[in-house]
Amino acid sequence: MKKIAVDAMGGDNAPQALVEGVNQAIRDFDDIEIVLYGDETKIKDYLTATERVSIVHTEEKIDSDDEPARAIRRKKQASMVLAAKDVKAGDVDAMLSAGNTGALLAAGFFIVGRIKGVERPGLMSTLPTVDGRGYDMLDLGANAENTPEHLHQYALMGSYYAENVRGIQKPRVGLLNNGTEASKGDPLRKETYQLLSEDESIHFVGNVEARDLMDGVADVVVADGFTGNAVLKTMEGTAFGILKQLKQAIATGNWKAKLGAFLLKDRLKSLKQTLDFSDVGGAVLFGLQAPVVKTHGSSDAKAVYSTIRQVRTMLETDVIGKSVKELSKKD
Amino acid sequence: MKKIAVDAMGGDNAPQALVEGVNQAIRDFDDIEIVLYGDETKIKDYLTATERVSIVHTEEKIDSDDEPARAIRRKKQASMVLAAKDVKAGDVDAMLSAGNTGALLAAGFFIVGRIKGVERPGLMSTLPTVDGRGYDMLDLGANAENTPEHLHQYALMGSYYAENVRGIQKPRVGLLNNGTEASKGDPLRKETYQLLSEDESIHFVGNVEARDLMDGVADVVVADGFTGNAVLKTMEGTAFGILKQLKQAIATGNWKAKLGAFLLKDRLKSLKQTLDFSDVGGAVLFGLQAPVVKTHGSSDAKAVYSTIRQVRTMLETDVIGKSVKELSKKD
């Protein structure tokens, strides 16, 4: 029986969305146990699951505007910190939080700890493609600077994930670059290109450009944390900007535009959901000793449920265990 | 009378779109003279303007798949090369091309030449915001690597352009970074932040994030060429990806969706035009001795006309002359 720690106090809809997501997960998956960290009284207001669920009570929590590293050090009884400590101690197998991303990165790095041989864990998320298949991209911003060796490890970790969790055989790995030719980029890209070409354990398909990501040019996309973060935020900003402009165009349009928009309403709504790039719901901090997963701050019960399902698959396929073994070997 | 060189042979719609854009510009602006470079017979098929226009005949041209630096060296009689040489010689005041971007960068750099004191010219374009005001961003990919000093110069050049050509008083300059706090980013960002804070000749508003660009957080956005290129291509890819998904959603939708789409057609079309990020039509290679402007490869006559108007404004306001003066002083 796998045990998953859930920080009940992080995110905009805490603890309700977290607890309701847990209720649903306990109902659907009879092979997991969940430990909720947070205010017991508030949690019990929403908790309907009765078996395989327990509460670790604490009144302290990390807020969204807390300075990450300091919060982790000072708020020793915070729900997120207690959960991370229990992961470290082996009392639980994985954790998820909808709280402060920086604090979760710090908790993962300083409390849960890195895989031996992984210098810089990277933030990974499955991002949307037009065909709905998606691709895994990392690092999305856990680091401001990376070396070719870090990027090489991201290629390996992304491949393990795509293969084990998403079931993609021989995932195609692309290096995000400013052109597709092998000679493109700065020294970081050129050296990484070399490392990836020489590693026969991955299926490297060469450089990929940001304009082709949504067309699914690769199953795993490797970037340094600075560029990955800029790309992710550009996707988010562009998607929301377009939806705003569409709204404006309709609002200032004639009756035809307004009627058209009314008839298209359902389709536009589902489009908006597909395009919620900001929902790095289920962003994995990859390179740690156990799965540490961030679900978006605005997650509802359904998103929390999906993230628990994702963590369950990660535990079932032992993707982290395999990474630990492989990456320690390469060191 | 200002003289503008137009490479008639570059781009998907050459020479027709180029020559027709010139016809219109000659009609509307009586204070410019245009020199067309390319095949005289083909140009004359479309040329209706009769005054203030001349042709420099050549049969050689640079193709879109030519290797840039080599093409510039070997195709000495190419239309783009001849135009650049005439800019250098002072026979014309500026040039525009819809051809091979890399070759135009190389022609600008090696033939037209840099402003004394500007180490690395940057590619700048005015990108769309939701409110239609736009912002100027550079470097969009002329360089794969930049130093804090380069980024400082981009801030100055972007400010001159926004103020002189776009008429924005005290343009707000933002540094693209992975967070808005002053302490964010890698050493390149931190050192650039310092340089921009200390320069009282610009109106530095601090770090800006890619997700806020379309909301118009700054009038000038400064980035290294690698990140700027990734951001531009992400905008393009995301915009086209969304339009593709919208099309799919409509195609697989019911009669309501299809009727809605039909009624919204004009609005969706105008949205698509606003969002044509790939149309860095009028991307200026800033930091050269004279205006060298790239208009998109797929430009039609209207886009060519707009770019000629933009070059005319650059010459009228002497934005390059001012840059030469100011940047040489700072050196």
UniProtKB/TrEMBL annotation, chains A, B:
<keyword id="KW-0443">Lipid metabolism</keyword>
<dbReference type="InterPro" id="IPR012281">
    <property type="entry name" value="Phospholipid_synth_PlsX-like"/>
</dbReference>
<protein>
    <recommendedName>
        <fullName>Phosphate acyltransferase</fullName>
        <ecNumber>2.3.1.274</ecNumber>
    </recommendedName>
</protein>
<comment type="subunit">
    <text>Homodimer. Probably interacts with PlsY.</text>
</comment>
<dbReference type="InterPro" id="IPR003664">
    <property type="entry name" value="FA_synthesis"/>
</dbReference>
<keyword id="KW-0963">Cytoplasm</keyword>
<dbReference type="Pfam" id="PF02504">
    <property type="entry name" value="FA_synthesis"/>
</dbReference>
<keyword id="KW-0594">Phospholipid biosynthesis</keyword>
<keyword id="KW-1208">Phospholipid metabolism</keyword>
<comment type="function">
    <text>Catalyzes the reversible formation of acyl-phosphate (acyl-PO(4)) from acyl-[acyl-carrier-protein] (acyl-ACP). This enzyme utilizes acyl-ACP as fatty acyl donor, but not acyl-CoA.</text>
</comment>
<comment type="similarity">
    <text>Belongs to the PlsX family.</text>
</comment>
<keyword id="KW-0444">Lipid biosynthesis</keyword>
<comment type="pathway">
    <text>Lipid metabolism; phospholipid metabolism.</text>
</comment>
<dbReference type="GO" id="GO:0043811">
    <property type="term" value="F:phosphate:acyl-[acyl carrier protein] acyltransferase activity"/>
</dbReference>
<dbReference type="GO" id="GO:0005737">
    <property type="term" value="C:cytoplasm"/>
</dbReference>
<dbReference type="GO" id="GO:0006633">
    <property type="term" value="P:fatty acid biosynthetic process"/>
</dbReference>
<dbReference type="GO" id="GO:0008654">
    <property type="term" value="P:phospholipid biosynthetic process"/>
</dbReference>
<keyword id="KW-0808">Transferase</keyword>
